[in-house]
Amino acid sequence: xxxxxxxxNWKMNTTVAEAEKLVGTLLGPLSSIDGxxxxxxxxxxxxxxxxxxxxxxxxxxxxxxxxxxAEGAYTGEISPLMLSELCEYVxxxxxxxxxxxxxxxxxxxxxxxAALGNKLKPILCVGEILEENMSGKTEKVIRRQxxxxxxxxxxxxxxxxxxxxxxxxxxGRASSGEQxxxxxxxxRNVITELWNKDIALNLRIxxxxxxxxxxxxxxxxxxxxxxxxxxxxxxxxxxxxNIVSQTASIKKQAFPNN
Length: 258
What we know:
single chain, TIM Barrel, globular
């Protein structure tokens, strides 16, 4: 079993003051939970402050996006060079970026390569929309997204993959644990094809999409699912701590020798 992983994607929520208050509430409880990697991904404007607050803790920091160029005339964009001073992880390929900002598999590939080139660890999101799911195209879509994102990317353990069925994000309609496991097994098969079996077996793959403290057990109780990328529930301190605590406890009980 891999070290379980829970990431909080705050999306476009929290002012700097609100982010500071939320992290202040999370810091103590999250720090006391061992055996699990915890990552907070606030808006760009709060990264510098939160980095200072988390200094010396076992909680890590991630960004929600980035552009692939190191610098230049790209008004409003944030580069991997800028992020490398602030955080360890960066979410790339999120369905909201694909949908609202028309990010292609090729652009996501450029971002993945730029992130790794600047010592950032991508959290690569893949997932199908409802129509694709209902018409049996889930595997076709996931394969295309993975191949597109990882073209010319050397095999590495420094990527986390998050399977987020688009129809489950922010809808309250989460996938079932068994459905998620089936797709995550398929993801590992594709990674084996693209890279090798060792990387595929050891890569951490998360589930995301309406994860909360009431349903997280359904996902993380499966050995194939290494954790979760949490959206709305991560904005509630007690709820997020509960999710992290449950995950750490379940993984420790199920795999006590790991």
